[in-house]
Model the fold of this input.
Amino acid sequence: MKRRSALLLSFVVLGLPVAGCGSDDEDGTEAKTSEQPSGGAAPDTGGAASSVSVNMKNTEFLPMDVKVKVGGTIKWTNGDSFSHTVTKGSGPGAKFDSGNVAGGGTFEQKFDEAGKIDYVCTIHPQQTGTITVE
Done:
C-alpha cells in the first residue's frame, strides 16, 4: 500500500510541472495578437471625409490633424467648461474665426479650397490643429 501511495504521489508531483508547460495565454502574446486590427476591420485613418467632427477638450483639438474633402464641413464641439476659439492661422481659402465658443457650444466651417490649413485657439495659443483639404 505504501508503494502504491508513493507511486501515486510521484505522478502527482511530476504531473504538476507538466501541467504548467502547456499553452499559456497569461504571457500576453495572445492578447497582443488579438489587439492587432484584422485586414477588414482596420479603421480608415488616411482618407478625407465630407463631414468631420473635432472636440475641444482639455485645451486640445481632438483629433489635432484632420482631413476633409473639398466642399466638406468640420464641426468643432467644445467639451470643456470654458471658452475656446477656432481661428485660421495660415493656408488657402477664406479666413475664419469662430469667436468665443462657450462650453458645450459648436462651430462649423466649410472648406472649398484644397491645401493645408493651420488653426489655433486664440485664448489658448498652445492649442493648435491642422486641416488638410483634399
Q: What stands out?
A: The longest strand covers residues 65-78. Residues 2-19 form the longest helix (18 residues). The radius of gyration is 28 Å.
